[in-house]
Amino acid sequence: MTDTPVEESLFQIIHCFHQYAARQGDVETLSLQELQALLTDNVPRFMDSLGRKEPYYVTELFRAADKNKDNQLCFDEFLYVLGKLVKDYHLQYRRQLCARHCAQHSLY
């Protein structure tokens, strides 16, 4: 049986985390620099379209996710980052749907 699209996506997220975590230091955690690289390389349109390239955005996201304040993100802490990204993507998606609906019905 082949993986479903969601199963494949989950595998890719796990693989991506470990690929970037292995770049320096502890291979089970992401540093701020590793998180910055992961986001820049893997969600570039998101980073561009929502103005997320600002250094403070990733820094604040990192600080909020780093629950134990060790300046590293373990996989569980990385899940917080993913949650924020999915939430922001969802909001962007909803705005696009609303804009398209309003344009189709001359509501602007």
Describe the protein's architecture and organization:
The chain is mostly helical and 108 residues long. Helices cover 69% and strands 0% of the residues.
Which secondary structure elements does this structure contain, and how are they paired or packed?
Elements: H1 5-21, H2 32-42, H3 44-49, H4 55-65, H5 75-104
Could you name the key traits of this structure?
108 residues, mainly alpha, 5 helices, globular
Put the structure in a nutshell.
The protein is mainly α and 108 residues long. The chain contains 5 helices and no strands.
Indicate the radius of gyration in whole angstroms.
Answer: 16 Å
Main sheet properties? none
Give the number of helices: 5
Query: pLDDT average, as an integer?
Result: 88
Number of strands: 0
Cα shape:
globular
Please mark out the parts with pLDDT under 50 across 5 or more consecutive residues, or reply none.
Answer: none
Tell me the strand percentage band.
under 5%
Helix content: 55-70%
Structural class: mainly alpha
Write the element-wise H/E pattern from the N-terminal end onward. Answer: HHHHH
